[in-house]
């Protein structure tokens, strides 16, 4: 049995960031399940590593490559880890400097992950304060003023 | 100038229900704009009659043909009309008898419409009480328990 | 029977604005019920004219007297009226010029009212687009950054 | 310096449950800050241990003593801890067996806490999936059908 350590959590994020599927598979199970919070278009359970990676691709595309997660705290427990990231992003096409919640993200996100045999098998995100509302607006099909935008 | 009358409002709904584009065009402008409330996948401005009719098709499809609007009150003003409908629907594939807000709609919706030269040029929906929350859950990509469903 | 007319709707608003209870009673029933949308602290049914007037007092107090409703459209139907107001307000104590949804309101609100024997017996508000979300933030006990504020 | 350990996190919860202020002070700082998620009446920052304990009293009162937090996972990091609790509660006065989100809570909540000199100085809650919506309804001043209830 592989113990969950902060180093392993950090390595999992680094692997994910690399985009290298072989390396990702050292930390994430093929049958990974991941729950995105809210009831906006990206919300809900992603039911495989491929679905999760496609989600990552979507967040990249929808933010014109600006989406970032900076690890601020890493915690471990029995067969589980948690972390707090500061997520920053701007929607693709948003006016420079917009601070509308529909166009700009800059807040902390919490992740809670279950590990099995050294790999993450389940993850769930959550938000603090009232940023769950802002998060739903950021990923919405509508921008400020209700104009629909490409998903 | 054609005055807005309750009869004309009712006739507009009947035309819309017929699906006959020529008949619909007697009451709705080609450059109709329509605003669906919330920040769920169907929310936002639809910027032409065609976009609006495609939306109608979506609501039909997502509810397996169960979507109904029953006119309960019709009001008219200067170059505008309003009405209150009781909307009922079940999401396609929902278990029989489900009363989850993600799967069952049964509440009143109001519409406010601007008319010009005898035709509707702008419409906006809204909801009463806390049903705006339920409305967002009904049209969400997620069902109860967060399972993602086809749009 | 007294018919509902646009003039009577406008007179009801003028009476309400006067704060003169006798005059208000010419247009609003003692057992008026009024539904404020959302699930924020002011939301829900107000179950008498007194409860409704107390609500009006609250909105006045919470906005430092800045709360305004400007009638933009009046509509009438059988025993009912509807109207669209542009509501503007700033929360008491908000920084000058703040455009945070927690501190600044500037959008249209829809009202639907049932009349009986010449007086309003039931009213319900609703909002367009995604302003129901903003409306809940404006009346919340929390401001931007989650700091709690007096109700 | 006192290290944060799972045992210490569990002991903090046990102290909180005891209601014994001296014992609570072994784990929580006098100037504790705590953030409750959402924009409902209980949401926002509580800016002292006393304010936090008053909040605990409120949750007890609003749920007729049914509010429970069962620790399901405990995690520790550098000067911080996290945990996942299953929270269950029924609103005081709710009909037996109600499963309305306005009346019944049964879902997981996570907590993220900062520790300093062996005591918790900051805590924030969050929710998974779409339960942030349910959480706001549970603590709302309105019940199902919009009837206002005592805070």
UniProtKB/TrEMBL annotation, chains A, B, C, D:
Going by the entry's taxonomy, the superkingdom of the source organism is recorded as Bacteria
From the record, give the transmembrane residue ranges.
Answer: none
Q: Which Pfam families match?
A: SnoaL_2
Domain named SnoaL-like: which ranges? 9-122
What is the protein's name according to its record? Nuclear transport factor 2 family protein
């Amino acid at each position: 049995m592989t113990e969950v350590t902060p180093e392993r959590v950090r390595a999992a994020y680094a692997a994910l960031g690399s985009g290298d599927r072989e390396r990702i598979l050292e930390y994430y199970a093929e049958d990974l399940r991941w729950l995105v919070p809210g009831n906006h278009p990206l919300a809900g359970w992603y039911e495989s590593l491929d679905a999760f990676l496609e989600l990552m691709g979507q967040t990249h595309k929808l933010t014109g490559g600006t989406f970032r997660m900076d690890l601020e705290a890493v915690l471990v427990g029995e067969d589980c880890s948690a972390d707090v990231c500061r997520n920053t992003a701007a929607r693709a096409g948003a006016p420079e400097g917009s601070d509308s919640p529909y166009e700009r993200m800059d807040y902390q996100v919490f992740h809670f992950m279950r590990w099995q045999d050294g790999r993450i098998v389940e993850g769930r995100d959550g938000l603090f304060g009232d940023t769950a509302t802002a998060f739903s607006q950021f990923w919405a099909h509508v921008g400020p003023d209700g104009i629909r935008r490409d998903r």
